[in-house]
């Protein structure tokens, strides 16, 4: 076995990753490296993958003072002492996360907890990081010792390149990423989203599980392939793979009976047992077949979601926070405080699930109704201008209901004088109920 086998239980590992061929990685061109990562060039060689990870992580731009292997050797005895790491409570920021074993031996499983505790000591600014145990467990496979693994994880956490988002470390960042994922599902997985809306009382709660699918439920062989590409391409890869998982879940489970109180567990079980239906290669192929927003557009969407959460005061995880969050999302569509001559409460809930997550936090305000304000278009404009976004609902004489979601102010129609044909953003859409 190679020098990176110290924490691995080889009896549990896929024999194909034990290849000892002499492949090397010499390329430095980003596009070539990206293709090699997607193709799994180093996936079949444990030692080569370890060397590639070390090289990629060493190139991550970090804070000037980032804890290294020597720091770990200095602090681990003080923090752990002679006690068993299994007897020590983990920091709150891992949020009772799953600690996957990923075919680690007993020493490796204990090392995960030790490294988490040492990271908590060195990164007091981390307040919420449920993906951390999984990342540590994975990197232990490709580290010579605990100290080297600690250093690699610290470099990922200490990345200071604003354009290179890696791991969420605050509740605000995590929750906004969940909202962003919900927005992406709505746009790119409409069939799956429709199923989630139909069977779940709270789709955001389902989508808040998306990182757990990757960093917790996904088997070792799969998350390692995802991590190969993640280290090269960044956070966007995680969205891609989670969307692909949801697409495959919908394909396998569509038409089968599902209960709202079990949908989260159903998806987790599907991801856990994904080897029964989808190979790692097929999963990545599906993920990269999705024509996703650009990295810049996703970053702007994430920032908008963070801003919406901050405006609602949802920035830290509290016992009452999730309840408040869910109440804000559905506040206007409860039967007792929603009245409409056009749509039912159920129909409004469906429509509400289509709009961007950051606006689903807000309580809608009725601006105009023909029953009260008449049918004057100029009066409609006068009541609607100055507000954004707006939702337009129309009921035809044939009792059919259609509508539109407009992301910008109606006054935008005059911005270009008589020359402007269209206004709004890419988030606008029309619909029929």
UniProtKB/TrEMBL annotation:
Gene Ontology terms for molecular function: GTPase activator activity
Keyword list, A-Z: Cell membrane, Cell projection, Cytoplasm, Cytoplasmic vesicle, GTPase activation, Membrane, Phosphoprotein, Synapse
Entry's localization field: Cell membrane; Cytoplasmic vesicle membrane; Presynapse
Protein's recorded name: TBC1 domain family member 24
Function field: May act as a GTPase-activating protein for Rab family protein(s). Involved in neuronal projections development, probably through a negative modulation of ARF6 function. Involved in the regulation of synaptic vesicle trafficking.
Matching InterPro entries: Rab-GAP-TBC_dom, Rab-GAP_TBC_sf, TLDc_dom
Main subcellular location of this protein, as a coarse class: membrane
Example of a GO cellular component annotation carried by this entry: cytoplasmic vesicle membrane
Name of the gene: Tbc1d24_1
């Amino acid at each position: 076995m190679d020098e990176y086998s110290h924490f691995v239980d080889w009896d549990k590992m896929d024999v194909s990753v034990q290849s000892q061929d002499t492949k090397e990685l010499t390329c430095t061109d980003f596009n070539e490296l990206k293709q090699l990562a997607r193709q799994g060039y180093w996936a079949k060689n444990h030692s080569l993958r370890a060397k590639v990870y070390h090289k990629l992580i060493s190139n991550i731009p970090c804070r000037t003072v980032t804890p290294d292997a020597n720091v770990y050797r200095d602090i681990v005895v003080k923090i752990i002492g002679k006690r068993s790491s299994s007897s020590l409570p983990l920091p709150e920021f891992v949020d009772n996360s799953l600690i996957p074993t990923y075919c680690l031996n007993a020493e490796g499983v204990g090392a995960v907890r030790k490294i988490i505790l040492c990271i908590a000591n060195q990164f007091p600014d981390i307040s919420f990081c449920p993906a951390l145990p999984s990342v540590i467990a994975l990197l232990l496979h490709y580290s010579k010792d605990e100290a080297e693994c600690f250093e690699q994880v610290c470099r990922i956490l200490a990345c200071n390149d604003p354009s290179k988002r890696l791991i969420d470390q605050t509740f605000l960042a995590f929750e906004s990423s969940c909202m962003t994922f919900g927005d992406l599902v709505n746009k790119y997985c409409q069939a799956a989203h429709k199923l989630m809306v139909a069977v779940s009382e709270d789709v955001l709660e389902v989508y808040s599980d998306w990182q757990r699918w990757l960093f917790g439920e996904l088997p070792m062989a799969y998350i390692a392939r995802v991590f190969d590409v993640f280290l090269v391409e960044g956070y966007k890869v995680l969205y891609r793979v989670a969307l692909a998982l949801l697409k495959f879940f919908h394909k396998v489970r569509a038409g089968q009976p599902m209960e709202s109180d079990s949908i989260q567990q159903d998806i987790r079980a599907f991801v856990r047992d994904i080897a029964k239906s989808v190979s790692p290669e097929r999963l990545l192929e599906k993920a990269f077949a999705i024509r996703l927003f650009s990295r810049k557009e996703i970053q702007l969407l994430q920032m908008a979601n963070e801003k919406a959460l901050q405006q609602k005061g949802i920035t830290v995880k509290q016992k009452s926070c999730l309840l408040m969050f869910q109440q804000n999302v559905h506040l206007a569509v409860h039967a007792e405080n929603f009245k409409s001559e056009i749509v039912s409460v159920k129909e409004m809930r469906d429509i509400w699930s289509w709009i961007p997550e950051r606006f689903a936090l807000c309580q809608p305000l009725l601006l105009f109704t023909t029953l009260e304000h008449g049918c004057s278009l100029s009066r409609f404009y006068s009541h609607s201008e100055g507000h954004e976004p707006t939702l337009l609902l129309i009921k035809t004489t044939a009792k059919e209901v259609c509508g539109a979601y407009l992301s910008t102010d109606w006054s935008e129609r005059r911005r270009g004088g008589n020359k402007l044909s269209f206004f709004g953003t890419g988030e606008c859409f029309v619909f029929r109920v």
